[in-house]
Amino acid sequence: MTDKMNAAWSALETLETGVNDRHMLNLFEVDASRADTFQCTAGDILLDYSKTNIDGAAKTALLALAEAANVTERRAAMFGGAVINETEGRAVLHTALRNLDGDPVLVDGADVMPEVHATLSRMGDYADLVRSSGITDVINIGIGGSDLGPAMAVMALSPYHDGPSVHFVSNIDGADVSDTLRGLDAKTTLVIVASKTFGTIETMTNARTARAWMLENGGKPDEQFAALSTSEERTAAFGIPAERVFGFEDWVGGRYSMWGPIGLSLMIGIGREAFTAFLRGGQAMDTHFCAAEGAENMPLMHALVGIWHNQICGHATRAVLPYDQRLGLLPAYFQQLEMESNGKSVAMDGAQLPRHSGPVVWGEPGTNGQHAFYQLIHQGTRVIPCEFMVAAEGHEPDLTHHHQLLVANCLAQSEALMRGRSLDEAREIMAAKGLTGDELERQAAHRVFAGNRPSVTIVYPKLDPFVLGQIISLYEHRVFVEGIILGLNSYDQWGVELGKELATALEPVVAGTQSADDKDGSTRGLVDYVQRHRA
Ligand code: F6P
Predict the structure, then answer these.
(1) Which of 191, 321, 417, 494 would suit a FRET pair with 423, their CA atoms being 20 to 30 Å apart?
(2) Per-residue pLDDT tens for 177-219?
(3) CATH superfamily entry for domain 3-68+292-419+453-492
(4) What is the assigned CATH class of domain 94-276?
(5) Mind giving me the DSSP string for 470-514?
(6) CB of 203 closer than 6 A to ligand 1?
(7) How far apart are CA 254 and CA 399, in angstroms?
């Protein structure tokens, strides 16, 4: 780590001392226009981070950290096609997939844009064909980045869905494929096998099961299977003809891949025009990310707020709380995006990270979460920074009163987290209920909210394809900036390998064709239990 970086971290750590005692309400008292200063806009999206304990000095120090980390240079390297995924020797160019009318993008001296546009156009033609050919159902079989993105977006954009029904199968658990196939007509179903490597065991097992089902039930797998992959050899070996294979290059990481062929199921669902609007939203955020200066830059500030909460204040988790029922899969999508990207212990140069890696990301849509886990967020002993999201307008014109209540709940939560309720206020409430003495004291103590709990709020006009594209691109760049500042490679995922290897080795042991003798006592006992209890 450079001296400049060390100095920037130290400056922040010094500022952190005593920061937890500083109440945000005091920050608003000192600076009544704080909300105007501690926010950014990108297009019509607003990010408000004024309900945090970041003050002017902290903001300046955070921006200095970004500068010391060379975020601007690293950003240019990423967009310019440099090999920034150093442990896999790859460029990182998912941004090229939404570079609809931008400049050439060079990888090894060759412009990749003609191929990107040609594939997009083939996808559009194929989507049009599927949408007009009597196909009633599409099943995307994929996992991780080959599932979460399109599944999240299909749900998010359901008001724009005018194509065949789209289903997703990901889990190796036979329940997933079996529950999905039940009730579908094999003659009018299209199966899309989505796998960057076309070697992932879950996906290939499910694909073979779906193919057998189709054959048994009068469908024609030769015509009703398509593939999304970087491996032409493997798709051909599976028997999917080249005209129904939509390829992409290894510079598109799995969890960043929904902008290209992996988004085909979404495109079939909402049509090529709406899909293009989604790409345009992503591209608009790219333009903002490359052009906006310092504190005006939304992905940069979003990342710096995250660094402040996790690495400086020590809050290990982050709750993503969309007040948008159709963003129900967004927390899971962000979980992969952030935790697979920045959940690492080793810096790019192989040294141990001197600070914690990225945060644990989790969440659920509001208002449901309010009636489940918000208790801990408000009164638990740990501080959990929250990220609220809400649209100014819903898609249900007859139900605007629902939407008003939704927005009111979202804003009330961030207000409650900041404001809290003091012991004196709790005592007053109990006294008004007629309690006195020890009982009043006891009951009041349970009704105290510490307050001063941080949150950011993202508001957007309406969840349409363009806005969804902006939001996803915002988070991708936020993860990128956090990764640069932490000094790690956000684009590999070696941490998933060991479990995969051991699962492959354990399969014959579970099946009983191989002995469990070389396993540890716990694993042996668990295998023994399964073998004794299955029919
Ligand atoms: O196991 C993790 C992972 O490699 C993810 O990074 C990826 O999104 C997922 O598996 C699926 O991989 P593939 O698209 O190659 O099937």
Answers:
(1) 321
(2) 999 999 999 999 999 999 999 999 999 999 999 999 999 999 9
(3) Glucose-6-phosphate isomerase like protein; domain 1 (3.40.50.10490)
(4) alpha beta
(5) HHHHHHHHHHHHHHHHHTS-TT--GGGHHHHHHHHHHHHHHHTSS
(6) yes
(7) 38
Whose CA is closest to atom 9 on ligand 1? 144
Spot the catalytic one: 86, 396, 500, 507: 500
Please check whether residue 137 is in contact with residue 189, taking contact to mean a CB–CB distance below 8 angstroms.
yes
**The predicted structure's pLDDT at residue 17:** 78
State the distance from the centre of ligand 1 to the C-alpha of 110, rounded, in angstroms.
27
Give distance in angstroms: CA of 121 to centre of ligand 1: 25
Confidence grade of residue 167 (pLDDT, cut at 50, 70, 90): very high
Give the CB-side neighbour count of residue 208, counting CA atoms within 13 A: 10
Is 428 catalytic? The answer is no
Q: Are strands 165-169 and 137-141 parallel, antiparallel or unpaired?
A: parallel
Q: Where in the chain is the domain with CATH 3.40.50.10490?
A: 3-68+292-419+453-492, 94-276
Stretch among 102-106, 453-457, 458-462, 490-494 having the lowest mean pLDDT: 102-106
Cβ of 150 closer than 6 Å to ligand 1, yes or no, is no
Check pocket membership of 231 for ligand 1, CB cut-off 6 A: no
- Structural tokens at position 188: 């009018």
Q: Tell me which of 202, 249, 340, 476 is the catalytic residue.
A: 340
Amino acid residing at 245? V
Residue range 56-79, pLDDT digits in tens: 999 999 999 999 999 999 999 999
Centre of ligand 1 from the C-alpha of residue 214, in Å: 25
Tell me what pLDDT residue 259 has.
98
Q: Which amino acid is at 411?
A: L
pLDDT (0 to 100) of residue 99: 97
Tokens of 351: 């040294």
> Is there an atom of ligand 1 within 6 Å of 342 CB?
no
457 lines ligand 1 (CB under 6 A): no
The pLDDT-based confidence of 101 (bands split at 50, 70, 90) is confident
- At 181, the amino acid letter reads L
Task: Report CA(147)–ligand 1 centroid distance (Å).
Answer: 9
Instruction: Region of 366 please: left (phi>0), alpha (psi -120 to 50) or beta.
Output: beta
Q: Is 145 in the pocket of ligand 1 (CB under 6 A)?
A: yes
User: Residue 145: which pLDDT band, with cuts at 50, 70 and 90?
Assistant: very high
Q: Quick one: which of 207, 208, 175 has its CA closest to 193?
A: 207
Q: Which of 243, 371, 501, 533 is catalytic?
A: 371
379 phi and psi, to 5 degrees? Answer: -125, 0
**What is the distance between the alpha carbons of residues 96 and 260, in angstroms, rounded to a whole number?**
9
**Ligand 1, atom 6, residue with closest C-alpha:** 254
pLDDT tens-digit map of 28-64: 999 999 999 999 999 999 999 999 999 999 999 999 9
pTM value is: 0.97
Domain with CATH 1.10.1390 in the chain: 496-533
Residue 249 designated active-site: no
Architecture, CATH, for domain 496-533: Orthogonal Bundle (1.10)
